[in-house]
Design brief:
The complex is a heterodimer of chains A (about 170) and B (about 100).
Chain A: H1 2-22, H2 34-53, H3 64-86, H4 93-104, H5 115-136, H6 141-164
Chain B: H1 3-51, H2 56-101
Helix pairs in contact in B: 1-2
């Protein structure tokens, strides 16, 4: 009788133990960082107003007037890239299992990197290229539109991703 | 099926549906904005090459940029997907834990 009761409780105890272990909150993406979102909001406004000011193109003759703004914006996006990358990427059993399931269905794995950090890097590179062009030749109107478009697209990616991390 | 099981299944479905509906709206808005902006960017580059505003060096830079933005668009969607899966996972585990908690 005693043995039968023991046998009956073993799976229940095992099940409760299993749930206790797995019931911990799983983290599949980095933590939301309010400081990053605030910084990207401020810097995107500064960037947009700078781009609007020079939307008709530039000439190399008055490049010096813009040099400071270029440097400030490049510095801000480099800093944002570092901040975004400084958070640890969750690498746990759940991520591994989900990626295995996705790969079994011929789908690529869920992201193991920061799309926002990549976008910040690309914005910084775009501004650096703009600065060089401006200094050496000036920027023609259509090229300016393309620079602006490229920055806007990467900004949208970074802002959407970072905001979405707020669960 | 046992009534309790039916309730648990219904709760899991409701949790997943609520999270998915909200997140899909965000994803749809983002995707539409991105696809439209990338298409517009392609036309600007094309125009710039034709009118000479974009020289050979800049052309290469912008074409590399296009490739990078498409790649990162997909990676951003994957990143969003991870957050959605995480939210559903945690909400379901939470609900199951509460169901177990109520009987012990």
């Amino acid at each position: 009788m005693k043995t039968a009761i023991k046998k009956k409780w073993i799976p229940i105890i095992f099940f409760i133990g299993l749930i206790s272990v797995t019931s911990c909150k799983t983290l599949l993406a980095p933590e939301y960082d309010k400081a990053i979102v605030e910084s990207v909001t401020t810097n995107s406004q500064k960037t947009m107003s700078f781009l609007e000011k020079i939307s008709d193109g530039t000439t190399k003759e008055n490049y010096k007037e813009r040099e400071k703004e270029y440097n400030e914006l490049i510095g801000a996006y480099d800093a944002l890239k570092l901040q975004a990358k400084a958070r640890p990427i969750p690498n746990n059993v759940a991520t591994k299992k989900i990626n295995e399931l996705l790969q079994a269905k011929n789908s690529s794995a869920i992201s193991g990197d920061y799309p926002s950090a990549f976008a910040f890097q690309k914005i910084s590179e775009t501004l650096k290229r703009m600065k060089t062009e401006d200094k050496e030749k000036g920027i023609k109107p259509t090229a300016m539109q393309a620079f602006k478009g490229q920055i806007e697209i990467f900004l949208d990616q970074a802002i959407t991703y970072e905001s979405f991390l707020k669960r | 099926m046992n009534e309790e099981i039916v309730n648990i299944v219904k709760e899991i479905k409701d949790i997943a549906t609520t999270i998915l509906e909200k997140d899909i709206a965000t994803v749809r808005g983002f995707s539409e904005r991105q696809v439209e902006a990338i298409a517009k960017q392609t036309l600007i580059i094309q125009k710039g090459i034709l009118n000479g505003d974009i020289d050979e060096g800049l052309k290469e830079f912008f074409l590399d940029g296009l490739e990078a933005m498409v790649l990162n668009f997909v990676n951003t969607l994957k990143g969003i997907l991870s957050v959605t899966i995480e939210k559903i996972w945690n909400a379901i585990v939470d609900s199951l834990w509460k169901a177990i908690d109520s009987v012990i």
